[in-house]
């Protein structure tokens, strides 16, 4: 009769101290008294996860929208750059410039979103949401880039290692193997976005504390 543990912990993390016990208690009561009898335990657990996801979206709409917008912008620019010069390698200078631009945009967005956060932990949480939303959307568009431009970019020098791994992989399609490799990187990519976004959120929290003091 208990809801999914991870979903319940996520909900408690999203709530403020003032609302935590009230909202989690009400949702737990509805889960046990209404959802489980009506849907069965498996259906009730899905219902509980949807409630938590809905609350997370409502409570964090602004940082999610900002993160998605940044990720879409960077991803589309990456697609346009590949369309214009599909064989151009990612040299160290351009990668450094790209990375610096992303960090700067992240920092500005995180400060703008988090400097009014009432608690330092809220600033870190908001920055993490901006970061993970940005990098996951950008990563998804990177997979689109692989699928669309594979016939050209497979001949780039920075793709040599992936092509060698493909020949030893047993896959019958380079496109399928490259997509699999990119999808397999998603948890690592999400972790990087969360850490980098959290760091930007800390910056926002520091600016907010300095402003209030």
Write structural notes for this entry:
- There is one protein chain.
- The protein has 213 residues and is mainly α.
- The chain has two domains: 5-58, no CATH class; 60-212, no CATH class.
- Helices cover 85% and strands 0% of the residues.
- The chain has helices at 5-14, 17-59, 61-84, 92-114, 120-153, 160-167, 174-184, 186-212.
Helix content: over 70%
- Morphology: flat
What integer is the average pLDDT? Answer: 83
How far is the first residue's CA from the last residue's CA?
Answer: 47 Å
Number of strand segments: 0
Regions with little confidence, pLDDT below 50 for 5+ residues: none
Amount of beta strand: under 5%
- Broad structural category: mainly alpha
| Helix run count | 8
Order of helices and strands: HHHHHHHH
Largest sheet: none
Kindly give the count of domains: 2
The radius of gyration over CA amounts to 21 Å
